[in-house]
Sequence to fold (290 residues):
Amino acid sequence: MKSEPHKVFEQLLNSKGLKVTKQRNDILDYLLKAKKHVTPEDIYRDLNKKDANIGRATVFRTLHLLENAGFADKIQFADGRLAYEHKFARPHHDHMICVECSSVLEFSNATIEKIQEEISKKFMFKPLWHRHEIFGRCKKCNKMD
Amino acid sequence: MKSEPHKVFEQLLNSKGLKVTKQRNDILDYLLKAKKHVTPEDIYRDLNKKDANIGRATVFRTLHLLENAGFADKIQFADGRLAYEHKFARPHHDHMICVECSSVLEFSNATIEKIQEEISKKFMFKPLWHRHEIFGRCKKCNKMD
DNA sequence: TATATAATTGAGACTGATTCTCAATATCAT
DNA sequence: ATGATATTGAGAATCAGTCTCAATTATATA
Ligand SMILES: [Mn+2]
Ligand SMILES: [Mn+2]
Ligand SMILES: [Zn+2]
Ligand SMILES: [Zn+2]
Fold:
């Protein structure tokens, strides 16, 4: 039982003359199962716990591969750390990031997206992607200020 | 003839029991005169060209000082490099960043800002600041694709 | 102005994240 | 199964930024 994302990923690899490897599949799996945004170090640490060895370099290489293919996205916490999430069957969204506990809320707003398009057009700027992050304190962290 | 921003900066320093130094003034000056967003390395390099020596550590320390005081803001290019701009008598704005040439266009939109407030409220999230960056190709770089 | 005190400084060591190198290994078309 | 080619992990290298600390400088006060 190979999941749909794995099939799609495999197609991408084939189409680029790249090979399907255990490491690449494990990393994709990890992202698919993650309940939150995960750092490269999370992936490296957890995949090495169980299953013998996977190198840090491979984690980064695979994340870039997924990102470039449009299968993963990254966000950045207030302290600069990067975290990833997969994009299979998930609509585009942006983030509110707690500066205290690094928890993340997701939001999306059609009006904002539309205005962005209009602004880009006005400036003859060809938008490829965007990042809209609101930093602040989440409900929980705000209470205990 | 001390500029208004320098006076305000001096007040900040005094109010915190910090000292007014040549290095801090030079860095503020550099930001005030810069025509574009500048990196810490730009500041370090250029200030050392002319005027004897100023350490990298001091550049970073002073940028953080200015940032925390609300006198400077940073943006991040597509490759991850950080750049700063001063905020004296400049209204809030967001950025469109060219992935080819790293040129930056500025925009601001009241509707977007308002919607952000509403979304934050809905999630009981206390917004402190935000970053809204559109990455793509500027008019010039788009032509020569 | 001289002195005392406390903040600031730059050099360079250090850190953490990421990238690079390369020889050994795994994948895949045939 | 074989051969051509892509991938791998270890560890070295890089890079931005931070830290440490002894020497220096700013400033309050006498
Ligand atoms: Mn998300
Ligand atoms: Mn700007
Ligand atoms: Zn929180
Ligand atoms: Zn451009």
Strands of chain A lie at 72-76, 82-86, 94-98, 104-107, 126-137.
